[in-house]
């Protein structure tokens, strides 16, 4: 079995929990309160900037020049999506863009950045994979369920269910499978564990948006 199949099996229970979350279910129904969606978009812009940096770090550490190019393009994609959020949703929803990262956003981006900088590069590639794969799976799930008419979130829903995003995801999965072939069993397990942690943090990010998470005390 390929590394990606094994890793997905290990993390699938988290994906199942994600699609059952109230944030996702209300997004599908179109009943998600606008303030929660706004909160999510603003945090996601902060997330995407750091995700782009993590991808650029991996690009710099990749062994093969093709992978340098692939992760550079992924990094560019994340930053472009981030600025698109600013150009569209920030205007539509009157978002100030002055928010500080929530604990969940900070935790997730710190995990991505520290793993990208310090872990074995194959493990770093596995750690960023949920950002692609979970979003595609969740995007496809939402797209398959939602009623197109009058859903205020249909523009967002279309972004991650599209063919263009699917191709990026397929490439990120292939690279991880190639990378895993040069790894020992123990290293492949470390890759799968990093992948599972990323999936867990995807869950936490949705959960924090639903709760409109704040710092327990006004520290920042
Ligand atoms: C939290 C999060 N994970 C993944 C993506 C998609 O790359 C996104 N926009 N936001």
UniProtKB/TrEMBL annotation:
One of its GO terms (molecular function) is thiaminase activity. It catalyses: 4-amino-5-aminomethyl-2-methylpyrimidine + H2O = 4-amino-5-hydroxymethyl-2-methylpyrimidine + NH4(+); thiamine + H2O = 5-(2-hydroxyethyl)-4-methylthiazole + 4-amino-5-hydroxymethyl-2-methylpyrimidine + H(+). Pathway: Cofactor biosynthesis; thiamine diphosphate biosynthesis. Residues 8-211 form the Thiaminase-2/PQQC domain. One of its GO terms (biological process) is thiamine diphosphate biosynthetic process. SUPFAM superfamilies: Heme oxygenase-like. Gene3D superfamilies: Heme oxygenase-like. The keyword Oxidoreductase does not apply. Catalyzes an amino-pyrimidine hydrolysis reaction at the C5' of the pyrimidine moiety of thiamine compounds, a reaction that is part of a thiamine salvage pathway. NCBIfam families: salvage_TenA (TIGR04306). This is Aminopyrimidine aminohydrolase. It comes from Mucilaginibacter paludis DSM 18603.
